[in-house]
């Protein structure tokens, strides 16, 4: 089966060749690589042009953000299955083999993901993921939203997943205008309609040398668009009682993360307070809710001191 690999590129000239080479080194060679240059100004597109391989397609557009770049890649792809890779991450050589094995075993799934490893300054580690069977394992994730509510990290990342093109088009692709976590938002919209298949095999490396969402300047003062979509689905009675609580808790977890970023990144106490007041009913995250609620009401100088400590602690890791 042919696979379309999509890499959104924006000012990652020093890293893009590493990502591209990891795609070209796949043991499954029936692929096209679509690099969407999203208005880079550092010569990243020229780096891609110098790599001689007929499977590479470089498409340039005015800067519109990662979501728009991924959506352009979806539109330009010629394969039924589309896999995504961030320009600063890499695939293991057997990544596509892992994904295609999942496709063969679980054709009814909408998204296929596999485990990933962190790399920070050369040190490798694995994210702490709970709620899934012990490795080695592959299958459909049971009660997807409930499982994700119990773990800070999902079992796959934006660089270790693939989806059917028809499914991505069905949910409208990636949400344009979302400040961050647009991938998490899209996965959730797919999960409302289709099962999610996953493998415990490690297929990608997520590099954390330069960026961490805790100190990223982007935050979502109104929370995640998926939250409203989920509320509509729950209100319509389309969710069975067994799955309803898990979906409610997952929505709460997303909004609490948005509130956390409002406080830690944007120092936006009013936005955080609004998000928290809308999710008092959470059971799994009562302590998190109380902690964030405290900081949403704390005196501004105290919050600023706490934000300084969070950043100092991050850079010391």
Descriptive labels:
globular; alpha/beta; ten-stranded mixed beta sheet; single chain; about 325 residues; about 40% helix
Can you tell me about this structure?
By secondary structure, the protein is α/β, with parallel strands linked by helices. Helix content is 42%, strand content 19%. The chain is built from 12 helices and 10 strands. It has helices spanning 16-24, 44-49, 66-76, 95-105, 144-149, 165-170, 182-191, 225-235, 241-264, 269-277, 286-297, 300-316; strands spanning 3-9, 31-38, 56-61, 81-84, 90-91, 111-120, 123-125, 138-140, 161-164, 196-207. Strands 1, 2, 3, 4, 5, 6, 7, 8, 9 and 10 form a 10-stranded mixed beta sheet that branches. Helix 1 links the parallel strand 1 (3-9) and strand 2 (31-38). Helix 8 packs antiparallel against helix 9, helix 9 (241-264) runs antiparallel to helix 10 (269-277) and helix 10 (269-277) runs antiparallel to helix 11 (286-297). The longest helix is centred in the last third of the chain and has 24 residues, at 241-264. The radius of gyration is 20 Å and the shape is globular. The termini are far apart.
């Amino acid at each position: 089966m042919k696979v379309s690999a999509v890499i959104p590129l924006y000012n990652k000239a020093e890293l893009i060749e590493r990502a591209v080479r990891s795609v070209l080194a796949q043991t499954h060679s029936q692929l096209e690589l679509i690099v969407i240059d999203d208005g880079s100004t550092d010569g990243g597109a020229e780096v891609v042009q110098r790599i001689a391989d007929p499977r590479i397609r470089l498409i340039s557009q005015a800067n519109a953000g990662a979501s728009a770049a991924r959506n352009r890649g979806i539109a330009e792809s010629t394969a039924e299955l589309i896999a995504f890779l961030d320009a600063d991450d890499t695939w293991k050589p057997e990544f596509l083999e892992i994904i295609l094995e999942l496709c063969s075993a679980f054709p009814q799934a909408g998204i296929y993901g596999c485990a990933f490893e962190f790399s920070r300054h050369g040190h490798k580690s694995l994210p702490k993921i709970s709620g899934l069977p012990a490795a080695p394992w592959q299958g459909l994730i049971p009660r997807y939203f409930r499982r994700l509510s119990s773990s800070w990290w999902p079992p796959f990342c934006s660089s270790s997943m693939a989806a059917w093109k028809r499914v991505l088009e069905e949910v409208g692709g990636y949400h344009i205008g979302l400040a961050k976590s647009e991938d998490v938002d899209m996965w959730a919209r797919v999960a409302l309609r289709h099962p999610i298949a996953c493998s415990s095999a490690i297929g990608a490396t997520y590099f954390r040398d330069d960026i961490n969402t805790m100190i990223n300047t982007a935050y979502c003062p109104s929370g995640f668009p998926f939250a409203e979509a989920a509320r509509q689905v729950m209100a319509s009675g389309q969710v069975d009682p067994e799955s309803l609580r898990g979906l409610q808790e997952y929505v709460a977890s997303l909004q609490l993360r948005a509130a956390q970023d409002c406080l830690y990144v944007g120092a936006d106490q009013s936005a955080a307070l609004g998000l928290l007041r809308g999710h008092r009913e959470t059971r799994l995250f009562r302590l998190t809710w109380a902690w964030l609620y405290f900081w949403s009401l704390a005196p501004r100088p105290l919050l600023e001191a706490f934000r300084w400590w969070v950043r100092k602690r991050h850079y010391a890791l």
